[in-house]
Amino acid sequence: MPHLPTFLAAVCALLAAAGSAYFALAIWAAHRFLADPRPESDRTFTPPVTILKSLKGVDPHMYAAFRSHCVLDYPEYEVLFGVQDPADPAVSLVEKLRAEFPQRQLRVVHCPEVLGLNGKVSTLAQMLPQAQYEHVIINDSDILVPPDYLREVVAPFAKPSVGMVTTLYRALPGKTLGAQLEALGLDTEFAGAVLIARALEGGIRFGLGATMATTKTVLRKIGGLETLVDYLADDYELGSRVAAAGHRIELANTVVETALPDYSLREFWRHQLRWARTVKNCRPAQYCGLLFTLGLPWAAIAVILSPWKWWTWLVLGVVAGARFAAAVLVTRRVLNEEKLLRNLWLLPLRDCVALAIWIASYMGSTVEWRGLRFRLHKGKLERA
Predict the structure, then answer these.
(1) Which tens digit of pLDDT belongs to each residue from 18-63?
(2) Could you give all domains of the chain from N- to C-terminal order, each with its CATH number?
(3) Phi and psi of 44, rounded to 5°?
């Protein structure tokens, strides 16, 4: 067929145009988020808070992350660190932290039981009864928070309808190419997708692992953390259940940082594939639609197939402009991140890898997590 390359280029150009529409949607959602009246933090609403952290091994910038939780501008809170193994190397960092901040309530909780395949949630479920306070915050061990973190996260609970508060997060990348590509994905893709979901679904209906703030009462209402011990996407599942129980989920007026390791390209691929298959398992219809959001690769393929057609180059220019505009807006205005902008030249490579990962995610249901292989079935982990 002599016109087959042109036909295929036209198909790719249509997919690229869909990508442009998605980037325009991200820009609209970001502007809507920024324009929405953000409630002032209620400085009089400061109930005591328990922060729960499940530990296993040492993460990049872990001590800096721990330390950021000890210099918070908040009247009363405690931080609990849960470990399955008392000899875990992270415990020594907690001891160092206690020596530096003797005035803070910092405790290590031994959680020896294995309640399910998700070790993090298994530990959190055993930690929860040790929490002194009604308001609890769960966040990952590699999360760095600003001094006003607790005030901003707790403020929305002044409204009785709020059952969970979560936060957007930006990447603190390592120096490797894998880490830079991961950071670009978090800051320019993931954050935009969250804002689009917020705009189109009338609010947030899931949690983000960077911060899951709630109360013991809400956790009891949804069956407790024990019901999540076999789910890989525990943050998504927890938020989904809170929303299904009739509670509102709010985005806090703050952004936290997640420290990324120096991923090799192989480690980066495995981590991205695990994330992709997790999202596909949780939201299959929306994940399938990601095919229409990867505008840059489709536009590039269209140019390769029909480089002599002016419209392929036009589509490439429009898509590139929309992609970079959305990335800059979300990164600078929403996440308040400027350092990552110097790596925006890697966006075409990042998007091409994203397309490859999307295709690979349909070629199996197994994931690698903490050195073990699992199969995903309806969001739950099964031994592979």
Answers:
(1) 999 999 999 999 999 998 766 555 567 899 999 999 999 888 789 9
(2) 4-35+283-383 (no CATH), 49-267 (3.90.550.10)
(3) -90, -15
